[in-house]
Amino acid sequence: MVILGIDPGLANTGWGVVEERLGSCRCRAYGCIHTAADDDLAQRLRRIVDDLAKAIERYQPDAAAIEGVYFGVNVRSAIPTAHARGAALVACSLAGVEVGEYTPMQIKQAVVGTGAADKRQVTYMVRNLLMLDHDPKPDHAADALACAICHANLVRTRALTGGAYIKEKGNPYS
Description:
single chain; alpha/beta; Nucleotidyltransferase, domain 5; 5-stranded mixed β-sheet; 5 helices; 21% strand
């Protein structure tokens, strides 16, 4: 199974493609879509849609996984992030790619083993789980790869336990 992971952000949207086969994951590609703060919002969102569409066309993912919006300390950044997330969902929808949605805590739990992991720990585990000889850069790409690994783990667990992957609104574990 080929999975496109997405870490949405208006200035930087990370993406990563992971291939899961026989219980192990390997990295096929990753990158980051940058948009300029002085560009019009609509143009920035269009860039995210267009660049993700190119990645989808090139890597032909079977599924996608996206990080949900986190309302932490900086609530003002949540709305631009939500815009970018919407653009990413549109790109996946236009390509007919189903999307699993995960909270930052779920992703950290799946990759590191604790939902309280920091960025360094996530990057370290992504590097090791994907057997890379370097840290994926920037952090947004590492987070996108972590999201894809989280989805691969869920799908694999469902297959091993006889459950089917069923996505219900707001709860990827339903």
